[in-house]
Automatic annotation (TrEMBL):
NCBIfam families: PRK00431.1-6. It comes from Microbulbifer halophilus. PROSITE patterns: MACRO. This is O-acetyl-ADP-ribose deacetylase. Residues 1-168 form the Macro domain. Pfam families: Macro. GO terms for molecular function: O-acetyl-ADP-ribose deacetylase activity. SMART domains: A1pp. Its EC number is 3.1.1.106.
Amino acid sequence: MIEVHVGDITRLQVDVIVNAANQHLQGGGGVDGAIHRAAGPRLLEACRGIGGCPAGEVRATPAFDIPVKRIYHTVGPVWRGGSLGEPELLASCYRHCLTLARREHMRSIAFPAISCGIYDYPPEQAVEIAVEQVQEHLDRDSQPRQVIFCCFDEAMAELYRLQLEACVRR
């Protein structure tokens, strides 16, 4: 089951929330900053212990003060025109998060719009990749059972809804 939600990812009732992190895992603005603020200072301490995360990969931490089981930190690509591997790196973020959720027996996961903030990924292209990767995963695997695309605003949520409708028609 795939859903679209508008609101604060830290308030969703899911097993895992995904953080659109930077490579240093040190917190920042946008979703990353909101997750770090909600989780409390122990999250930054845990992230420092990990030492970083390359673009396209994922690292997991406890959720601390957020009432979910885990936080998956993934680093999306910075948009540089699309010819430097950005689509594959973004797809890899989703694949790695979904694979880890399956391996850890997580039943639900919420994704933000990875790379669509300060990393300037064109939203329409990012949404197409996100929906495609999630749909492909769910077509071959039953875990996680619930995937939520959590959007900051209604305009982004509408892009996800339109892409999901297009997938259903195929």
